[in-house]
Write the structure tokens for this entry.
Amino acid sequence: MLNHKRSALSIALAVVLAPTLASAQSTQNTTTPAATAATAATNLDTVQVTGIRRGIENAIAIKQDATSVVEAISAEDIGKLPDVSIAESISRLPGLAAQRVAGRAQVISVRGLSPDFATTLLNGREVVSTGDNRGVEFDQYPSELVNGVTVYKTPDAALVGQGLSGTIDMQTARPLSFPDRVIAVSGRYQKSSLGRAADTDPYGNRFSASYIDQFLDKTLGIAIGYAHSDMPIQENQVGLYEPWTTEHTTNGNRPGVAAGTYFTDGIKALRRTGNNKRDGVMATIQFRPNNSWTSTFDAFHTEAEQIDTANQFELNLSNYNGNYTPGLLVSNPQVNANGTFTGGTASGVYPLVRGMYNKRKDKIDAFGWNNEFTFGSVKLVADLNYSKATRDELNLENNLQLTPMPQLDTVGVQFRQDGFSQISPGLNYSNPDALFLTNTIYGSGYGKVPKVEDRLKGGKLAATIALPEAMASWAPDLDIGVNYADRRKVKTQSEGNILLGAQGDANIASDLQYRPVNLGFAGLGTIPAWNVPGAVGRYMTFNPVDNLDYLIPKSWTVQEKITTAWARLNINTDIGVVGVRGNIGVQMQHTDQSSDSRYWDSSQAAGNNIQPYSDGRKYNDWLPSLNLAFMFPHEQTLRFAAAKQVARPRVDQMRAGLEFGVDTGTGRPGGSGGNPLLDPWRATALDLSYEKYFGEKAYVAAAIFYKDLKSYVYTQSVDNYDFTGLLGNYVPPPGMVVPVLPTGTFSTPVNGKGGTLKGLELTASFPLEMLTDSLRGFGVQASATFNKSDIQILDPESASSVGTDPISLPGLSKRVYNFTAYYERSGFEARVSQRRRSDFIGEIGNFNGNRTLRYVVGENVTDAQVSYTFSDSSTLRGLTLLLQGSNLTNEPYRTYAGSKDRPLEYIEWGRTYMLGVNYKF
């Protein structure tokens, strides 16, 4: 509660101070124009804004000059933040919030909507992704290679690839925008507070270098950047099985637990260790031989390899121990007032020690060639782009138990909602010589080999045409254009059991053993850790396939061909003393979407069971938009925007993959799968924003937004679904006497009822020297966002964690706060940043490789940085020394099932400390 009050107080302080700042500026504005000009000339001669302040002021200038409602981060701001990826920088902007994955900010929600509703651009072009969906994983983009970010909260007709909640445009450097050569290098040495475990030490490193230069009398520019990071993966976790349910206690299947008690069927404690390596390269060549032609070619490459192993102790509480006797008996059960089981002692259980290995290699390549031509009063832009992403993944598991079988145990458990749940076994699981790879209660192992390829190519042709003099006084020009994008995403997933080799049960040899991991945080001692792929290679066999009946739907291809045309009239005029800027226009999107996959037809003869399946559709969307900015005296801006918006459906929901069968007793067909016929999310949006600027030093703003979503994509059971297209080759089995019906029930994503989303955003950024000179060098940035929605959705695929009742929008936090306090003077810089969000429903990937939703406890993440830059008069000029700290309060990541006293995950990633150096030639 204290932190909430502090964040709210920060915003309140900014609003209270606004009149004071305005009064100060009003007083300044009473000076004569001659005096103002003289003062400005003096300031230009004596003041050079650098570092944090420079980044903030650049971002303020972008926001003030925009005709849309935007938020921005500049290059200096990104370079100075204690951030590993661009995601953490973006998440500090007003109205944006990040979800952490593996301790890193990875996906971004804009204005309370999940990442599905936002689009990400790189240099104005939509980019591919390595996930199953279209959402970008931002931690793949090194902050060192990004020159700036602009988030468009309102669209205009010429914004191609616009999202429904917002459009995030990342920009790399344009060398001809720099006055001189720039050569810079930086390095960081990192340490995790969780320390060494298994084969992973707590240390990591980052390195980057950039070169920007101009040639041929500044008509040719080159920018090259490289960034490398090698970071340890360190994680402590306790997880509980889902669902929490009363079903089994009511049926008497959990002996010792009272009927009607909410009970979970298992618990695990693990230490995850590994490394995440990432290399990124960007290059830009810019040629401007004259004022009539500018040609820019840019390339971006990033590849990452993440290898980690979770060594875990796991306890099944579902009354299954391999069918040994005695079975489960829970003694001394503890149940809270909410009917939730919180602890007790379980006997007749057979715990496992498991090794869960994951290796993932991601690669993204993006290329673009842009040409701008000016022919008198007409400006032409021609742009070509190509991007491709690939993901290759390997998941392996080893399962160990004490032998000879059975070695049943009596284990005490205590479930906690605000800390690590505790496990107290009676037997010893620390001795690797007593644990064997064997056919455990979960088998000997299982493996998967998912692969994703995402390819996008396109081109754009646009023109800006100056309008006749009669119109130029209020509408100087008109933009028209067309863009074509062809995207193809392919997913395959082979799987299979990992079986014991000819030697049978095996004890893992000492040369494959790592340092034991300590699970003391969960009440356990140490357990063995080992080389999982090494054990599979030596003792086991793994032959993954993709042609079994339950695997067929997991492979699919989705293709989208989108033609976008637009016309936008730009407005720039005066109404009395009020300046008016903006635009009005319309965008047309023609979409041709399709998907190919296969399904299993059990009625066919062996060898012919796998059948192809394809479907798709075409449609048009007309998207009018209006953006107006009224510039009142004293640097006050009032913005209004109205638009129709769309967001493309999730790629994995558009898959043609499906499961299908016929009930031989009733003749009624049934199945489940994706839906290539989905419409996009559609909405009507209104925005109103008031902004008060104080030059480029400071501003305060208040904005309200309203979105009316006409529909939402739900997974539903559709009755009377027409199966005619799948029944053409169906052969009734012998003995089936009822006719095959043409319709049945199909579970699939469909466009259902929508609703409204509205919110309030308050923002302030100012140096405290505007209040009193005694605070020179100090400054604050603060924002608060309050969201509300009446949209309720159903997600049967996530029922085990979020239940079967309607839930709120995924990604929606009702409150999001960001606060930064900084000091910068005489080369010394210090900054503390805090981002906080309330509870929300987050998206994770489950063991099956599918998307699932979970309730996530709100979090408060605090980062800090101090640095010193040597002055130009020093022999060490250009050198900056810095110390950074991330997640300083070791904020946990917590999920739960409907009620917080029914925890699912409690994870800590520890604090991260970095010592670094920057050098600019």
The two ends are 47 Å apart (CA to CA). The chain has a mean pLDDT of 90. The longest strand covers residues 266-290. The chain has ten helices and 43 strands.
